[in-house]
Design a protein that fits this description.
The chain has 484 residues and is an alpha+beta fold. The protein is built from 17 helices and 22 strands. It has helices spanning 3-16, 35-41, 45-48, 64-75, 119-142, 161-167, 179-183, 186-200, 249-263, 288-294, 298-301, 306-309, 313-316, 318-328, 368-389, 393-408, 434-438; strands at 20-24, 30-33, 80-88, 94-106, 109-118, 146-151, 156-159, 209-215, 221-232, 238-247, 268-275, 280-286, 332-340, 345-354, 360-366, 413-418, 424-430, 440-443, 451-454, 457-459, 462-464, 480-482. A five-stranded antiparallel sheet has the order 2-1-5-4-3. Strands 7-6-10-9-8 form a five-stranded antiparallel sheet. Strand 18 (440-443) and strand 19 (451-454) form a beta hairpin. Helix 15 crosses helix 16. The radius of gyration is 48 Å and the shape is rod-shaped. The chain starts with a helix and ends with a strand.
């Protein structure tokens, strides 16, 4: 490029530069300035050319010593600045200016180039940046979560107040320290750090969320649920990680206590989730006592509909209670009732309530044994009355059958006499089908738990051993079975 062209290029750059530029000589005389300098101070360059800067109204007298020092250093061909001092504009207002100077050779003459910018404008931007930074830090500090940032080596570059509080350290004391060796259990630190290194190297994808323990200053372990993201620079290079974590230690301990309580209740307990807006419910949990009562394993019913596992639940009336409790949130007691389907039969007493999660819980008792005992006592009383007023055995037993039909509100009943070898003899009956009567046999004779089997079906029965002095042939009679 020719000298003339270079000179023209310099003039173009000088004139159109976005920051204020001015030229002065070794005596501090103003030689030239660009458009940005004019806009900055409000003077046209022609108004200042030929004047010594120190003698103009631009610089307050109290700053004269600083200006003289800048000019002296310029004479020694030394760059100066940046220096900040006030400049008075033509309209009398003042700005804070940042000034730097550089010695240059121009057309064989030793001159000085000054660069000036309005710090007020920059300060406004800087102030806003600082305010935004402070606001961001406040957000981090008031967040109920742990916020931690790590660089590519795993060193802590940011940890908020909640993080320090959870870890039990003084604020700032962990800055720059290795996260893994200081904040994780020793037995997990090495493997976790190695996995972190693989994430930074791009060898494995980061987990967006996971749970792992940290260890506080006193050595206590705490379980944290983390959410993570990778930090990258403008060129897409990984610069570290940013994670937010919730301390779920108390929650997990509470869940564990609930689990222990739930599993060891003496009552059956089931947790259901509503489907079809409460028209049906699926099992979400089932305790050990429930398994014993209903003779089914939890694994066999989880996530299955209650109407599938217990097909009699609608007729039983409990499904209606589930729906109502689910929709209203009001707890209800479902009084003692007999549940039966092809698989199980039993008396149940249910208490139903709704959790905050809108899951429905049923706590229930198996009162079959109690109900059987009540029935047995009733049989004993009725049989005693019948035997006391009867003229003979048949009349007494028929009176008992009539009383059973009346009390139990049934259509038919009979009295069987059983012997020790398991044989059965129908003594009296009313309303029983002949096929039903002929195909009877006894299991577990001489025990209250015995069942009568008719045509291959187990029938709910009660047995009562007769007093030995009741009948003449009592030595042949081992018990009485009622068929409700």
């Amino acid at each position: 490029m020719e000298k003339k062209d270079k000179s023209k290029l310099f003039e173009t750059v000088f004139e159109n530069a976005p920051i204020g530029i001015y030229l002065y000589n070794s005596k501090g005389v103003f030689l030239d300035g660009n458009k940005a300098a004019e806009a900055l101070i409000g003077y046209k360059r022609e108004e200042l050319i030929g004047q010594q800067i120190i003698k103009t109204n631009l610089v307050p007298k109290r700053k004269s010593l600083l200006i003289s020092k800048i000019i002296s250093n310029s004479v020694l061909r030394k760059p100066t600045g940046p220096n900040i001092f006030p400049l008075q504009k033509k309209d009398g207002s003042t700005i804070q200016a940042e000034v730097s100077t550089y010695p240059i050779d121009f057309s064989g003459e030793k001159l000085f180039l000054g660069i000036v910018r309005n710090v007020n404008q920059c300060q406004g931007i800087e102030d806003e940046f600082i305010k935004e930074k402070e606001r961001a830090e406040q957000y981090l500090d008031i967040a109920g979560s742990i916020i931690v940032a790590l660089d590519t080596k795993g060193s802590i570059t940011l940890l908020n107040k909640e993080g320090y509080k959870t870890l039990g350290y003084k604020e700032g004391s962990l800055d720059g320290k290795d996260w893994f060796s200081n904040c994780l259990p020793k037995e997990e630190a090495k493997d976790t750090h190695q996995y972190f290194d693989k994430i930074i190297q791009g060898k494995v994808a980061p987990l967006s969320s996971y749970k792992n323990p940290i260890v506080d200053k006193d050595g206590n372990k705490k379980i944290i649920s983390w959410r993570n993201t990778i930090l990258k620079d403008k060129d897409g290079n990984t610069t570290g990680t940013l994670s937010s974590g919730q301390d779920i230690t108390d929650k997990l301990e509470s869940e564990e206590r609930f689990r222990d309580l739930f599993d060891n209740l003496n009552s059956g307990a089931a947790i259901y989730k509503a489907v079809k807006d409460g028209k049906d419910f699926v099992f979400k949990d089932f305790n050990k006592t429930g398994e014993k009562i209903d003779k089914i394993k939890k694994e066999a019913l989880l996530n299955k509909k209650v109407t599938t596992i217990f097909p009699g639940v609608k007729k039983f009336g409990l499904l209606e209670i589930f729906t109502r409790v689910y929709k209203t949130g009001n707890s209800e007691h479902f009084p003692l009732s007999l549940y039966k389907d092809k698989r199980i039969v039993g008396w149940r007493d249910n208490y139903v309530f709704r959790l905050p999660s809108k899951e429905v819980v049923a706590i229930y008792e198996d009162t079959t044994a109690k109900k059987q005992a009540e029935e047995l006592l009733k049989i004993q009383r009725n049989l005693g009355v019948a035997l006391g007023i009867a003229k003979n055995v048949n009349e007494a037993l028929m009176g008992f059958v009539d009383k059973a039909i009346e009390l139990e509100e049934i259509d038919a009943a009979g009295v069987y006499l059983g012997t020790g070898d398991g044989k059965m003899e129908l003594v009296v009956q009313k309303g029983l089908d002949n096929k039903f009567a002929k195909q009877a046999k006894i299991l577990k004779p001489n025990t209250p738990e015995g069942k009568l089997i008719f045509a291959g079906e187990s029938v709910y029965t009660q047995f009562n051993k007769l007093p030995s002095n009741t009948l003449d042939d009592s030595n042949k009679m081992m018990g009485v079975g009622s068929i409700p």
